[in-house]
Design a protein that fits this description.
278 residues, alpha/beta, Spore Coat Polysaccharide Biosynthesis Protein SpsA, Chain A, ten-stranded mixed beta sheet, globular
Length: 278
């Protein structure tokens, strides 16, 4: 286990770094190395089959396994496991930049009583370069907050933290090593679109042609033009194009879910009619 110096902060300012993992052996060490200054590291793993658990145990003895509850459920679970007054939520493919780490440490060496939560920009490393425009930057995330006054919510797979009190924004970025390559990007968007479609259906949303035809185009225009994605060149175009694909697939899969539910209902109705006839 990596040694950590005793906390120099007041007990009320101590921070639990909380990391959710699943088969992240290639990325988790970089994440944990950026968190060794925290007063505690907690890791909740959803039954990895690689070396993720072993690597986590090099950095903390607070490593647990729990079935996957979804992004929102898993974050709220690990928040409850934290023993410090402050919680820093992290994904295994995220890293605190040295500049952000210094901002947080300086803030917490003083009086943090004025704020309940802290947010900061997240910057993605994509195909060998940092993305500086479009929908990916600045992607402001509220991840550091008082445990008892904040929680995760949203619609799967997109979670966010809400807090009951004032928020401060740091300038330095949280680094995000999100996709290994274009194939990984496309596979993730395909998976996320399935999760989103199911969540929408369960929330009562239904397929509309207007959403299917307009929303993907708007997403492309917003990312590429309105948010300046074109300034990231080929990478900016790829991001906007794959976002177009992701939104299209979300609504197509929502239609598919409705179709399957209708077919199932018709089959059940036919079965009931057949039973009555017999």
């Amino acid at each position: 286990m990596t040694d950590r110096k005793p906390s120099q902060t007041h007990e009320k300012n101590q921070i639990s770094a909380c990391v959710i993992t699943h088969n992240e052996e290639a990325k988790i060490r970089r994440c944990l190395e950026s968190l060794t200054w925290c007063d505690e590291i907690v890791a909740v793993d959803s039954f990895s089959t690689d070396r993720t658990l072993a690597i986590c145990r090099e950095y903390t003895d607070r490593v647990y396994q729990h079935e996957w509850r979804g992004y929102i459920g898993q974050r709220n679970l690990i928040r409850e496991m934290a023993s410090c007054p402050w919680v820093l939520l992290m994904d295994a493919d995220e890293v605190l930049s040295p500049e952000l780490r210094q901002e947080i440490k300086q803030e917490f060496e003083g009086n943090v009583g004025a704020y309940i939560g802290y947010q900061f920009p997240r910057q993605v490393y994509y195909l060998g370069k940092w993305i500086k425009h479009g929908e990916w930057y600045p992607d402001i995330k509220l991840r550091l907050f008082k445990k008892e006054l904040g929680y995760s919510c949203g619609q799967e797979p997109h979670d966010y933290v809400v807090v009951d009190g004032p928020i401060k924004t740091f300038r330095s970025p949280l680094w995000h090593y999100t996709y290994d390559d274009i194939t990984d990007h496309l596979e993730t968007m395909n998976r996320f679109s399935t999760i989103s479609a199911r969540a929408k259906f369960e929330d009562g949303s239904r397929f509309k042609w207007g959403n299917f035809l307009v929303r993907p185009v708007w997403r492309f225009i917003k990312g590429m033009i309105l948010k300046g994605g074109l300034l990231d060149g080929q990478r900016g175009f790829l991001i906007a194009a794959i976002n177009f694909f992701g939104v299209s697939m979300k609504y197509a899969k929502l239609w598919e879910i409705e179709l399957k539910q209708k077919q199932l209902s018709n089959k059940e109705d036919n079965t009931r009619v057949s039973c009555k006839t017999n």
